[in-house]
Amino acid sequence: MIYNQKLLLQSLSCFFSVMVMSSGGVATRLTHSDVFVFQPRCRYLNMSPKNVVFKKICKDKSVGVYMGKRDFVDRVDSVEPVDGVVLIDPEALQGRKVFVTLSCTFRYGRDDMDVMGIAFRRELYMSTRQVYPPLQDRDKGVHTKTQARLLRKLGDNAFPFFFEFPDNLPCSVAMQPAQHDVGKQCAVEFEIKAFSAESQDAKVRKRSTVKLMIRKVQFAPESEGVAPSVETTRDFVMSDKPLHVKASLDKEIYYHGEVIKVHVSVTNSSSKNIKNIIVSVDQVAMVVLYSNDSYVKAVAIEEFGDSVPAGATLQKTYALLPLLVNNRERRGIALDGKLKHEDTNLASSSIVKEGVLKEVMGIMVSYKVTVKLIVGGMMSSSEVGLEVPFKLMHPKPDAVKESEVEEELVFQEFKRSYLKGMIDDDEDGNVSGGEDMAAKEK
After folding, report:
1. Which N-terminal stretch is annotated as signal sequence (predicted)?
2. Residue 67 β-bridge partners
3. 102, 269, 317, 414: least buried by Cβ within 10 Å?
4. Which domains, and CATH codes, for the chain?
């Protein structure tokens, strides 16, 4: 009878997985179940799920970190603070103190790379707080409702921590490595690290340390600027009249996964023939901290083959769709920061607060539409091009309702999945929270 029930459950699991995947969504297997949860695809950034608490425990079980979210929004004029709760085991600590550090790191190569004494890694920001023994009353350290609920649930051995971002830090972004690249890629990364030690400056044991990668993200502003439009006029030798080209977009800001329509107007009053028109969406990633390197990659390109004879005109709209799925194998594409098993996307456009030096932003990302006209000639062809700048970002997600905040908390193990060829955090002495710590939750 038990065997038949197991067969039935397995059959149902396979059936639902096939049905879910065939309906165009993403199927995610739960940790302790064979049931699939359907998650429809959308163009919104994969923000932390509501009412899910992410936890991670160090190997010696002395310190565990609990956070209500991993994504913190930069609104240009202000940034969401980083908050969470540390759960300690007094017996495992053996009199050691507990500290929490928030850091922002710019990485321009592998950790083992060193050229003339220069390491390809730089700490842009680091702040450390002592959470145990507490330096103030525990209730005074509570800044959010999630923290208050976690303290009630985890008991007297839980202590809150809280950080505020400075307004001059970049957002999470990474350069896509090639397939053969090994180690951590060029990236701007944010990390929460909790550890136990005799003092803040004492040597820290890996077994007593837990690290959690978080993201600093930006959303499209509520107000948009004027729809961009660029035009140019080109004169040719032995041609009495010029060539006039105009390109425009419908709006300044586009969302990830949204089709970009490019309106092109060509008035060819010259004696030259336009043999072809090429339209592309170019990503410009500037590594401004070390070398001011600039990477220009066409993330969507179409060669339409349209021609405009001498004395003729053309009015046409071209559609382009820039997606990471079409650029998976290309090295040097800038991506939004990646967490856990979630997929990422092309990096969003960088918006910098007025007065902040761009040199400290690590990696700056911008986008432009490039229109190239191939002009025929007697000996060889020439190009007439123009560039239309725009922003590619995520839409602002809906605000969480008060009733949803009061729902039951769901604990989920916090474990980052790196890109191909990268080492997991567990190699640095971190383990996901298991049954040992779960038994202490009230």
Report:
1. 1-27
2. 54
3. 317
4. 1-41 (no CATH), 43-219+397-438 (2.60.40.840), 229-393 (2.60.40.640)
Question: Is-contact 346 299, C-beta < 8 A?
Answer: yes
**pLDDT digits over 294-329, tens only?**
889 999 999 988 999 999 999 999 999 999 888 877
pLDDT tens digits, residue range 252-300? 999 999 999 999 999 999 988 999 999 999 999 888 766 667 889 999 9
Query: What's the half-sphere exposure (Cβ side, CA atoms, 13 Å) at 260?
Result: 36
Lowest model confidence (mean pLDDT) among 278-292, 353-367, 369-383, 427-441: 427-441
The distance in angstroms from the start CA to the end CA of the chain is 36
Lowest mean pLDDT among 117-121, 128-132, 207-211, 344-348: 117-121
Distance CA 166, CA 125 (A): 9
Percentage of the chain exceeding pLDDT 90 = 29
Q: For residue 296, which of 235, 357, 385 has the smallest C-alpha distance?
A: 385
Closest CA to 438 of 31, 169, 55: 55
Which residues on adjacent β-strands are paired with residue 160?
85
Q: 243: buried, middle or exposed (CB in 10 Å: 19+, 13-18, 0-12)? A: buried
Rounded CA-CA distance 13/150 in Å is: 33
Is residue 172 within 8 Å of residue 188, measured between CB atoms? yes
Q: What pTM value is reported for the model?
A: 0.73
Whether residue 204 contacts residue 216, with contact meaning beta carbons closer than 8 Å, is answered with no
49 bridge partner residues: none
CA angle (94 as vertex; 93, 96 as ends), nearest 5: 65
Residue length, the chain? Answer: 442
Residue 371 and residue 245 in contact, taking contact as beta carbons nearer than 8 Å: yes
